[in-house]
Amino acid sequence: MKRIKLSVFFFLIFVSAGFAQQDAQFSQYMFNTLYYNPGFAGTEGLTRFTLLNRVQWLAYQPTQYRGSAPYSTVLSGSSLLPFFNKRMGLGVHLVNDNLGPLNNTEFQLSGSYHFKIKEGVLGVGARAGVYSTRVRTDWYKVVQENDPIYEDLTRDGINRIRQTKPDFGVGFWYQSKKFSGGVSFDHLGETKLSYKSDVINSKLANHLYISGSYNFDIGPTLKITPSAFFQTDMNQLTYLFGALGTYNEKFWLGLNARQSFAKRDVDQGGKTLSNDDIILYVGINLLKNKQNMNALRVGYAFDFVTNGVKAKKRTSHEIMLSYIVPTPWELPKPKIRTPRYRHEEN
Fold first, then answer.
1. Cα 321 to the chain's mean position, in Å?
2. Distance between CA 65 and CA 136 in Å, rounded?
3. How far apart are the C-alpha atoms of 235 and 203, rounded to whole Å?
4. pLDDT digit string (tens) for 122-164?
5. Is 319 within a domain?
6. Which domain holds residue 92?
7. What is the rounded distance in angstroms from the CA atom of residue 155 to the CA atom of residue 20?
8. Which phi and psi (to 5°) does residue 142 adopt?
9. For residue 341, is it within any domain?
């Protein structure tokens, strides 16, 4: 039986690895706050839609399963609503995360209530939605024929195993002229997931996110924003720190360092493994609207792995598009001056 189980060892490891980092990873976290924190919804005081697409380990060709390099996409929208004296924010996001035969899809609706605190706004938010996982068993390259576990997974002639579960999260986000940051908790309840066979079971682990940034005005046209981002599912820890420089509210350039630690008690004899990345950001704001703001935001991030036992290739690429949409009600002009969210021209 031990020999038979070894024949699907890589399949089990693949599924487990897919859930070790259950949330899709994006480098441009400073432009993707709603994805991590429901308290952010509506705090910009406008309606914005954002699209990010990430291709990890570009040109990687897997050998143990069909498919291509991992890729992730998130589409989100955030708006300030004309209710409760314009203190309510609404957000929605859709995520599609692909890792070979494993596909994770997430749909979340976020709501946030805003409290005025000194010169800033505190958004207290919650989200609810669904989290769906799908495994394409026919994409896996079976090591041993007549494997009982693999046959159990496909005995009904179904080669796509899907799990859809409810999902919830809460978050707090504070934003002012100089400082912005928050904390959030995702996947509350740790929903259990199973894949027909008793051997393959997992859970949607709790995630903790903490992020913050501070805006420095270097001169009339140059702003520097150091930032830090921290996430963990109590098994894997990832943190990023760096700075973003914005010139004339139009161009930005930044550099970040990412380090990830993953503990694998079974697979690696209890050793703690780590990945190290350097991330370069570049972007531009375009298309001035009636509010004297650049409505279109275009960004690019290039990741280079400097040290990592899990990396299949050293480079990853990420593209971001964001657009401010006019709303049928009159929204106040944003007063928060940060390179991440403000786009007024001087």
1. 15
2. 10
3. 12
4. 999 999 999 988 877 665 555 556 655 555 555 555 556 778 8
5. yes
6. 2-324
7. 27
8. -70, 130
9. no
- The 10s digit of each residue's pLDDT in 261-287 is 776 544 455 556 667 889 999 999 998
**Helix, strand, or coil (residue 6):** helix
Write the single-letter amino acid at 303: D
How is residue 97 written in tokens?
């995360």
The residue written with tokens 């992020």 in the block is 211
pLDDT score for 163: 82
In a domain, 173, yes or no: yes
Residue 135 included in any domain: yes
Instruction: Provide the b/e sequence for 233-272 (b: ≥16 CB within 10 Å).
Output: beebbbbbebbbbbeebeebebebebbbebebeeeeeeee
Token pair 């805003």: residue: 114
Give me the residue label for tokens 């944003």: 334
Residue 302: strand, helix, or coil? strand
**Reported confidence tier of residue 16, pLDDT bands at 50, 70, 90:** very low
Question: Any idea what the CATH number is for the domain that residue 301 is in?
Answer: 2.40.160.40
**Which residue type sits at 158?**
I
pTM of the complete model: 0.81
Name the range with the highest mean pLDDT among 3-17, 144-158, 208-222: 208-222
pLDDT of residue 233: 86
β-sheet bridge partners, residue 282: 253, 300
The CA-CA-CA angle for residues 268, 269, 270, to 5°, reads 95
Number of domains forming the structure of the chain: 1
- How many Cβ atoms from other residues are within 10 Å of residue 155's Cβ? 11
How far apart are alpha carbons 96 and 93 in whole angstroms? 10
| Cβ within 8 Å of residue 3, ≥6 positions away | none
Are the CB atoms for 12 and 41 separated by under 8 Å?
no
Non-local CB neighbours of 151 within 8 Å, separated by 6+ positions: none
Q: Is 224 within 8 Å of 216 (Cβ atoms)? A: yes
What are 178's two structure tokens?
Answer: 């100089």
